[in-house]
Each structure stands twice: as structure tokens, then as C-alpha cells.
Specification:
The complex is a heterodimer of chains A (about 210) and B (about 375). Chain A has eleven helices and six strands. Chain A is α/β, with parallel strands linked by helices. Chain A has one domain: 3-Layer(aba) Sandwich (Rossmann fold), CATH 3.40.50. In chain A, strands 2-1-3-4-5-6 form a six-stranded parallel β-sheet, sandwiched between helices. In chain A, helix 1 links the parallel strand 1 and strand 2. Chain A is globular, with a radius of gyration of 17 Å. Chain B is of the alpha+beta class. Chain B has two domains: about 200 residues, no CATH class; about 130 residues, 2-Layer Sandwich (Heat Shock Protein 90). Helices cover about 60% and strands about 10% of the residues of chain B. A five-stranded mixed β-sheet of chain B has the order 1-2-3-5-4. The two termini of chain B are about 50 Å apart. The chains are: A alpha/beta (about 210), B alpha+beta (about 375).
């Protein structure tokens, strides 16, 4: 990147977490704003036009997905990185399907979070091992094929995801599979696309399944 | 009462919703015009704003009278337009329906107590709206209206001759009684369901409180007593894992005999004992048989090795259930090692990992190099009995 610092916006309903992340990221990024619920997040993001939004999956009234969907129309250039403490795959998949380009858990180390923000800002993806696991689960099994292009992962995509699920960083996946990091990124982007466009029964059902209080 | 349409209209017009409901019911007789209007209103209405739920407007006799006139006018209009089922049917039916609606649309608790007070003080004054009647008066009024409707129907059709047409009269009476009693029975059933729901909710709350008390509060108090940051984060991680399982357990099998639960438990043990973070990802699930039990043990052994020797602070565990086999991967980014340099006295790898896998027809591959971390890859064949 050029010497302009990446502008980050935080959305999380926990004030403690927001101030913690603000301190952590303050050295490397411009934290241009934060919000604690869906309406103020949409308003703040459209006003400040940040590069990357750190978005909590669980928000009162609509969840993170509502923010992504609302912002996407008016400011498609804003990129989203989802994060949560949650293990509920349905909610995570929902935010990704809405348009977030990556997902990390809140226990992520500060350096890794900075790395993830940078990647998402470049228009790349950031799949944590947990998200890779969720996605493999979602595409697992033989589903009635609606669209073979969209509803099935290729062997190579599956292989890349499995390595990420095993804890490999993109760079390490590239080394293990003897491909370039760019190719790894291409595969993951393709998976992201399928995730967003596929009508696979599991994906929709997942998104509707069991919502937490 | 059903969809809030009448309530919404009442709120907007500052008229008691009960009156609006009655108007809809009566209008339905005009060849279904009321039901049609209700549906239109339902489609046009937006979501109610919960905060806008102001106190119910008090409706004076005059307003109720006005609504009554409007309804009457609309009925006459429908009659002129030919949307009519005949005088002999509609007027008595309107009376009867009005009666049953009076019984059906019971006011809320506040209304009733207010009505009770008003009636107690002024027993003779009959306010204009039926909404403020106490239960007994409401029932009596409704019943009277229903009976009057039934009688009028019979009379209009010149069949009041009870002797010649007794069965019809009995049927009308039974129908009238049914109309009077049905709402009461329906309300009883609904009340029962409400109570049951409330009981379930309070049980859930108690369950949650007990859980928070037993685990979360205990851990928090323990954390306040330690000054060792490693111990603190170990406690926090253990509690986090436990709470997560409890909260999100339903999305995944919590069956103690399932593979994912066994792997999670093993990871939790290692976290507790060795103050490392273990990130577990499991794709697919199945019941644990002997071969999978061996896989779980070997995975656990690999986690312990990584925790003890690698120096890494985080261990990644990935387990996948595939059609013909189950694989497990334990990876750290620690110091790594060279196999040949490990003393023969350290039997962990050979016995606990490779030996276990071999006994069940599985394989264990260990990839490691100094400075590059270690990955233990395990795989056992598994019968496809999903």
C-alpha cells in the first residue's frame, strides 16, 4: 500500500471490546469511528467511508449481516471483516453470504488481526481455520445439485480449505501445495463467491437454523 | 387481537379498537365486505412501532355511535349495490354476530378493572362503548344480542312456530349457545398455553442462572485470586470453552459418544493441563467406535507433545470425517524436531501415536523440521455407517 494508513471502523456492541481493539490497532491504522448497533453503524460507515469495517457478527436487531446488506448498496467499496466470539456457524455463514470478505474469532492475536485487516483491504479474503471448517461442513455431503458450478467445491478448493482448517496461513498453504499465494487467494475467492451465490439447501437452512437469544 | 389491524386503526382514529373490530365483523355480513376490508388494511399496514403503543384511547359514546352509523351506512350501501344476502338473513345475523363479537372482544385487564370501578359507582349509567363493560355485563349483553338475532332470524323466516318446526328452533338455540360459549372455551385454552409457555421460560432462566453461578462466577472469583497471568488466561480459556459448548452446543452434537465431543474434551484437557491454546475445527461427525477411540487418544497424545515440547502457544487441531476414513491433524508452529535426534527412551510417538494407528489399519505421518513447526497427520479407515 501507499503511505496512507488504512481507515478502520469498529462495530461491536461491547464497549470494552471496542476500546480494546481501538488501542491495539491505533498504532497501525486510523480508527475513524465506531458504533454499537445496526442503525448507528450504517450511519457512521456511510458518513466516514472507511476502508475496512470490523464487524461483530452478533448485534442487537438484525446482526452484522444487516449492516453489510445496508451499506453494500450505497458504498460497495467498503470492505467487511467479520469477527465474533461465537461458535454458531449459521450466524457466521450469514454474514459471509451478505458480503463480508473474511471471518476471525475475537481471540485472534493483535498481529494476526492487523494482517487480516490488511488483506481484506487489498480486496483479498481472510479465512480463519474456523471459517474454513464451517465452509467445508456446509458444502459437505452430496446435496441435490441445483447448479453444479455453484453448489460444489472443486477438489483443489477443498484441498486449500482443508489446509486452512488445519491452521496453515495462506503462505504456508501455497508452499505445501506448490502453488503461489496468489493462486491460493484465487481459490478462496472462488469459494467465497460460491458461498455467496449458491442456493444449496444446507447453506440456506443453516442461516435459518437456531438463532441465539 | 389477531394481527393488530383493528388496534392500529383504532390508535390512528383515536377510537377504541374494540369498536373497530365490531365494525369489521358486522361489515363482513355484507357479502364479506368486512373481511375484504380487513385484509386490505392488513396488507397496507406496516410493522407496528412498539414504542408508539400509547395508552388505549378512551372512546366516548358519541364516537362509538358514529362508527355504528358508518357501519350502518356501509351496509345500506352494500344492500343497494346488490352485494346482499337478503334482509331476512343479514339483519338478524348482524345482531347475532354483534352479540358474539361483544363476548369475543374482551377488554384487557386494565379496562376491566376500570369498568368494574365505574360500574360499582354508577350502576345505572350505561356508557356508550361495550368495551368498558365488566365481564358479566358484557356476557349478558352479548348473549341477549345473539338470542335476539336468532329469534329475529326465525321470525323473519316465519318459522317461529315452535310446535311445527321444533328441530330448527333447537338447532338455532344450540348454535346460539355455541356462539356464546366458544370464545370462553377458546380463551381458557389460550390461557393454559400461555401459562405453560411462561413456566418453560422461567425454568430456562433458572437453568441459565444456575449455570452462570456454578461455572462462570466461580471462575471469575478464582481469576481475581491469582496473580499469575498464565494461570489467569488458562482459567479464562477453560471457562470460555465451557460456556461456548453450553451456548452453542445445540448446533453440533453434544452426544458424549460422538467424535466431535470427544475431540473437544481432549483439547480442553490439554488446555487445562498445559496452559496452551488449542484451536479445534471438526468437519462432520459420527459415533466413536474402537478405531475412532484410538484416533482420539493419538490426537490427544500429539496435542500433549506439541504443548510440552514445541514451545508454541497455540495448537491447531483439525478433524475431518470423510466417506471412507477419518483424518486428524495436529499442528504447531513451534521449534520442530528431527526424528532421529529423539532419544529411544521417549516412546510417545512410536507407541501412543504410530502404534495405535497401526493397530486399526490407520497411518500416522509426522512432518517436522527444526524451526518450521510440526504437524502430526493421522488417519484411520472407518466403516461408512452414517
Amino acid at each position: 500500500m501507499t503511505n496512507r494508513r488504512i481507515r478502520v471502523f469498529l462495530v461491536d456492541d461491547h464497549g470494552l471490546f471496542r476500546s480494546g481493539v481501538r488501542t491495539e490497532l491505533g498504532n497501525e491504522f486510523d480508527v475513524v469511528g465506531d458504533a454499537e448497533d445496526v442503525p448507528s453503524a450504517i450511519e457512521g460507515i456511510l458518513e466516514t467511508r472507511p476502508d475496512v469495517v470490523l464487524l461483530d457478527v452478533h448485534l442487537p436487531a438484525g446482526g452484522g449481516a444487516a449492516v453489510v446488506l445496508a451499506v453494500r448498496e450505497k458504498a460497495p467499496e467498503v470492505r467487511f471483516l467479520a469477527l465474533s466470539v461465537s461458535d454458531a456457524p449459521a450466524d457466521v455463514i450469514e454474514v459471509i453470504r451478505a458480503g463480508a470478505r473474511g471471518y476471525v474469532t475475537k481471540t485472534i492475536a493483535p498481529a494476526d488481526l492487523a494482517n487480516a485487516i490488511g488483506r481484506v483491504h487489498e480486496g483479498d479474503t481472510f479465512f480463519s481455520s474456523r471459517l474454513a471448517g464451517f465452509v467445508l461442513d456446509a458444502f459437505a455431503g452430496v446435496a441435490p445439485q441445483l447448479d453444479p458450478e455453484m453448489d460444489q467445491l472443486t477438489a483443489r478448493e477443498r484441498e486449500v480449505l482443508r489446509h486452512i482448517a488445519r491452521g496453515y496461513a495462506y503462505k504456508e498453504v501455497a508452499r505445501a501445495l506448490h502453488i503461489s499465494v496468489k493462486t491460493v487467494e484465487t481459490h478462496v475467492s472462488a469459494v467465497l463467491r460460491k458461498l455467496q451465490l449458491s442456493n444449496r439447501y444446507e447453506l440456506t437452512r443453516w442461516a435459518e437454523d437456531r438463532r441465539l437469544v | 387481537m389477531l394481527t393488530g389491524v383493528a388496534g392500529g386503526i383504532g390508535e390512528r382514529l383515536r377510537i377504541n379498537p374494540v369498536v373497530v373490530r365490531l365494525a369489521f365483523v358486522v361489515l363482513t355480513l355484507g357479502a364479506g365486505a368486512g373481511a375484504f376490508l380487513y385484509l386490505v388494511a392488513l396488507l397496507l399496514s406496516g410493522r407496528p412501532d412498539p414504542e408508539a403503543r400509547a395508552a388505549r384511547p378512551r372512546t366516548g359514546a358519541l364516537q362509538a355511535f358514529a362508527v355504528g352509523l358508518v357501519v350502518l351506512g356501509l351496509l345500506l350501501l352494500l344492500r343497494d349495490a346488490g352485494l346482499w344476502l337478503g334482509d331476512g338473513f343479514v339483519w338478524p345475523a348482524a345482531l347475532a354476530v354483534l352479540g358474539s363479537a361483544v363476548i369475543w372482544t374482551r377488554g384487557d385487564e386494565g379496562e376491566r378493572s376500570r369498568a368494574g370501578r365505574v360500574l360499582g359507582r354508577l350502576p345505572l349509567r350505561i356508557p356508550g362503548t361495550v368495551a368498558r363493560r365488566a365481564g358479566g355485563v358484557r356476557l349478558a349483553t352479548g348473549a341477549l344480542l345473539v338470542l335476539a338475532g336468532a329469534a329475529a332470524f326465525l321470525f323473519q323466516n316465519r318459522r317461529l312456530d315452535l310446535l311445527t318446526n321444533a328441530p330448527l328452533a333447537v338447532a338455532a338455540a344450540v348454535l346460539g349457545l355455541g356462539v356464546i360459549l366458544a370464545p370462553w372455551m377458546w380463551r381458557q385454552a389460550r390461557q393454559l398455553a400461555d401459562e405453560r409457555r411462561e413456566r418453560i421460560r422461567s425454568e430456562e432462566r433458572a437453568d441459565m442462572a444456575a449455570h452462570l453461578h456454578d461455572s462462570v462466577l466461580q471462575t471469575l472469583s478464582l481469576m481475581q485470586r491469582t496473580s499469575d497471568p498464565r494461570e489467569m488466561s488458562r482459567l479464562a480459556r477453560g471457562q470460555e470453552r465451557e460456556l461456548r459448548t453450553w451456548l452453542y452446543g445445540g448446533t453440533r452434537s453434544t452426544d458424549p459418544s460422538s467424535l466431535s465431543t470427544a475431540i473437544d474434551a481432549a483439547a480442553a484437557d490439554v488446555e487445562r493441563a498445559h496452559a496452551v491454546k488449542v484451536e479445534v475445527v471438526v468437519v462432520g461427525d459420527r459415533p466413536v467406535d474402537d478405531a475412532l477411540q484410538a484416533l482420539v487418544h493419538a490426537t490427544r497424545e500429539a496435542m500433549i507433545n506439541a504443548a510440552r515440547h514445541s514451545g508454541a502457544r497455540e495448537i491447531s487441531v483439525y478433524v475431518e470425517v470423510e466417506p471412507g476414513s477419518v483424518g486428524a491433524f495436529v499442528r504447531d508452529e513451534g521449534t520442530g524436531f528431527v526424528r532421529g535426534e529423539i532419544g529411544p527412551d521417549r516412546r510417545g510417538i512410536a507407541d501412543s501415536i504410530e502404534g495405535r494407528m497401526a493397530r486399526f489399519g490407520g497411518v500416522a505421518v509426522i512432518e517436522s523440521a527444526p524451526g518450521r513447526g510440526t504437524e502430526v497427520q493421522l488417519r484411520v479407515p472407518a466403516a461408512t455407517t452414517r
